[in-house]
Fold this sequence. Notes:
Layout: E1 6-12, H1 19-29, H2 47-52, E2 59-66, E3 72-79, H3 87-95, E4 99-105, H4 112-123, E5 127-133, H5 142-151, E6 161-162, H6 171-181, E7 194-203, E8 207-216, E9 219-220, E10 224-227, E11 233-242, E12 246-249, E13 251-252, E14 257-262, E15 275-278, E16 297-303, H7 309-321, E17 327-333, E18 337-344, H8 347-361, E19 365-367, E20 374-378, E21 383-386, E22 398-413, H9 417-426, E23 430-436, E24 441-449, H10 457-464, E25 470-481, E26 483-490, E27 493-494, E28 500-503, H11 504-521, E29 529-535, E30 538-545, H12 561-581, H13 588-596
Parallel strand pairs: 1-3, 1-4, 4-5, 5-6
Antiparallel strand pairs: 2-3, 7-8, 7-15, 8-14, 9-13, 10-11, 10-15, 11-12, 11-14, 16-18, 16-19, 17-18, 20-21, 20-22, 22-24, 22-25, 23-24, 26-27, 26-28, 26-29, 29-30
Helix pairs in contact: 7-8, 11-13
Amino acid sequence: MDVSLTRNFCIIAHVDHGKTTLSDRLLEFTNTVQQRVMTDQHLDSMDLEKERGITIKSHPVTMSYPAKDGRTYKLNLMDTPGHVDFSYEVSRSLAACEGAVLLIDAAQGVEAQTVANAHLAFSQNLKVIPVINKIDLPSANLELCLKQLEDILTIPAEEAILASGKSGIGIQDILEAVIARVPPPRWADYAQTRTLVFDSLYDSYRGVIAYCRVFSGSIKAGDIMQLMSTGQRSEVKEVGIFTPKMQKSATLGAGDVGYIVSNIKDTADIKTGDTITLARQPASEMLPGYKEVRPMVFCGLYPLESSDYEKLKAALGRLRLNDSAFVYASESSVALGFGFRCGFLGLLHMEIIQERVRREHDVEIISTYPSVVYQIVKHDGSILEVDNPINLPDPGTFTEIREPTIKASIHLPNDCMGDILSLIMEKRGTCEHTDTLDANRVMLTCVLPLNEILVDFNDRLKSITHGYGSMDYELGEYRASDLVKMEILINSDPVDAFASIVHREKAEGKGRELCEKLADIIPPQMFKVAIQAAIGGKIIARDNVREMRKDVTAKCYGGDISRKRKLLDKQKEGKKKMKQIGRVSIPPDAFIQVLKN
């Protein structure tokens, strides 16, 4: 097919604005998927995606559409995630397209990720087609959506297409707009073959399968391909397209989106964002890839059974292959044994990776408390980066600790503003300015420490705003703060799994809470065991584990009190001696219960 008859586009939107449902209607309308095999959320291949109703991975599909002008076009569609933690996934899809369908929920209007994803598309010079979705809802407010489109995104309202993914309204208008407004594939006239790898997965029978977009030239089975970043060569075994299942084809030409199966068996060899060319006539310059993303949240992952260590290592290697925003390195803990220090883009990203390890690779794991990367400024001016509280140097060796901040845009209803400002202050944040979006909604621009939003910020934002609030954020600068390392001591021995870096003002409350929780969970010991929270040498909170007690006076029937006292004093001495030489054995499931909570 002629390159001028190909269109590459993706669907971008805020979470739950109907991207996957619209994709289903497009597949039905173009007869790409037969009605008898069609399922809801057809492009969401993971059980996890269907359960949670979110898209985690972008899914390519090739459709054939006979347009009103009498010509048949090849449309390559990519459905993308909407959550801020998967914005890297969105940017990879955008790099492989020339246009983007921007979806806006008619009932909710422009939300935080709508703005973020639209700006991602604008920055890559893509043609953005605005679509107001869910217009058949009783709560739809078209006037407001069109006004927000012009005021917030500066897109003319007359460009908007009214549609409903659920009832199939406006599907043909969207397809016709894609053909009319999205330009044909760019850079197709480059002399050599250049193919961008935007994703990959590991198949235990066929090795590494690269998902790619061919920009120029062609590639077919039997060719010797070359990875431009490393120069590694490999024979192409099979090429094909997605319909949406993998369908083998003879060749992939300019503008095509498909997959390449080669001789490469190691997951680390193919990097996302690499350019594939042909070894016999290699290209001289690579395609613009992706900026390297840096993980923002770190935690330790440990196998429940120490014998599963190698299995966990293999599982993380395969997840790293098709999610280059995820990183890991080996570490060990006195309490939990051997495991890995893992880095994620955000909390949802962390949760999804952990769930995928359990389900797809059948490894039961436990994770430590999430932390972020701190900068330690030493006396000589050098900066040390620390992502694990255990590695924090002695306080006398550095002048200050800097913590990462985020710049957050929070969209919320007017009547929740007071409560949200209180939440921001509680989390040590500052509100820089407020923008009024319309009569009912405002947007706050805030700066918050990343460490403070790790655990419950998003949940509390949703509960305060009754589900109407939304947040998008980007990493800000590092700021100096009064941070300290808090350790938990059990019978005077520090437990590395519970070490954390906290703000000095919040240390006492957090330490007391952790001590109480541990005292409840750790089983009774033969002698009184102290659980203490300490900053340096200063104890800031304490609780005791219950002690077992044998009733040594049970055999005394009456008689003088001195006889009972003698037996009790003997028991007391024994416990004192035991405390000096005894050790506290804490079962691993006690750590697991605390860390799960």
